[in-house]
Amino acid sequence: MPRSAFFRRTLIACAAACLALPPAMAAELGEMTVQSHVGQPLLAEVELTALAPEEANGVTVRLASPDVYRGGGIGMDAALQGLTITPVERGGRRYVRVATQQAIQAGHVHLYLLLGNGNAAIVRLATLWLTPPPPTPPTPPAPPVVTAPIKPLSAPQSP
Q: What is the mean pLDDT, run by run of 10 residues, along the chain of 159 residues?
């Protein structure tokens, strides 16, 4: 039973600490567009939505630590070690472009993204689904090589 009491006290302490924190960010992840296929380096864009006006210009996005993956019970794809995250603004909407140098071999990849603005930070999970590469059209067979029969050269006739 002491373990259960410890768990309850820890839970109560965590809840109290959360109440004392400054307001959390409201940022959410929106539309996700994957532009790569299984077996290729990841290239995708993730929309940032629900940004408060004070968050819009100061939000930073980075990959969460491996501890977050362990805590979530999700394995971190090794290709994510070299992940680059680039902010993009298009049509008044904010996105982050995520790209890896190594190929993703699975049909999906989980991204725990840490969104922060200096005062607060939140972790959001994005699951990106990759499709198999499109089939390559079969190469047409090479046309058969036709050789003409060789005529023997005749010697010139003398007059």
A: 53 46 66 94 92 70 92 92 91 92 94 87 93 85 76 66
CA distance 61 to 55: 12
Instruction: Tell me the C-alpha distance between 45 and 87, whole Å.
Output: 9
Helix, strand or coil for residue 156? Answer: coil
Q: What's the pTM value of the predicted model, to 2 decimals?
A: 0.66
Q: Which pair of tokens denotes residue 38?
A: 């299984």
List the one residue out of 50, 63, 66 whose CA is nearest residue 115.
63
**Cβ neighbour number for residue 103 with a 10 Å cutoff:** 13
CA distance 118 to 140: 59
* Residue 115 CB-density burial (10 A; 0-12 exposed, 13-18 middle, 19+ buried): buried
Question: What pLDDT, on a 0 to 100 scale, did the predictor assign at position 80?
Answer: 93
Give the gyration radius of the chain's Cα atoms. Answer: 29
Residue 101 CA to residue 4 CA, distance in Å, equals: 46
